[in-house]
Design brief:
Transcription Termination Factor Rho, Rna-binding Domain, Chain A, Domain 1; single chain; elongated
């Protein structure tokens, strides 16, 4: 039996904890006739619910445009996370590593460029795309 916690507090039944506004299956031995479940149902803190997969299948499917937008959003978030990781790695590099990275990216560097200047140039190049 699946139930939804409509209350404001967590509900624990056996080894299952149901957070507010969460739907979960009751553990074995906890059916609608169990005294605790009966009490929570009577108070309105729990309500019988469909299995989450069944409820999800009843929702309207996304249009192709919506699917494309979701996929584009995921790709953008992934690209942003990768960029943040690279920039974090760049910030940890020493001068020789920074010069090598700048060379890989085709950034012109001067012998007088300090670590901070190289980090700024590399960061600007990577952020620009």
């Amino acid at each position: 039996m699946f139930v939804k916690n409509t209350g404001q507090k967590c509900i624990g039944l056996g080894d299952v904890t149901i957070l507010p506004d969460e739907t979960k299956e009751l553990p074995d031995g906890y059916g609608a006739k169990h005294p605790t479940v009966k009490f929570y149902l009577a108070k309105g803190w729990l309500v019988q619910a469909e299995a989450p997969a069944a409820a999800a299948s009843k929702k309207s499917a996304l249009t192709d445009e919506e699917k494309a937008a979701v996929e584009a959003s995921k790709q953008a978030a992934k690209k942003e996370a990768e960029l943040k990781k690279i920039l974090k790695d760049v910030a940890k590099m020493n001068l020789d590593q920074l010069r090598a990275k700048a060379g890989e990216l085709g950034i012109e560097i001067a012998d007088s460029d300090a670590e901070t200047a190289l980090v700024e140039k590399i960061t600007a190049k990577l952020s620009a795309g």
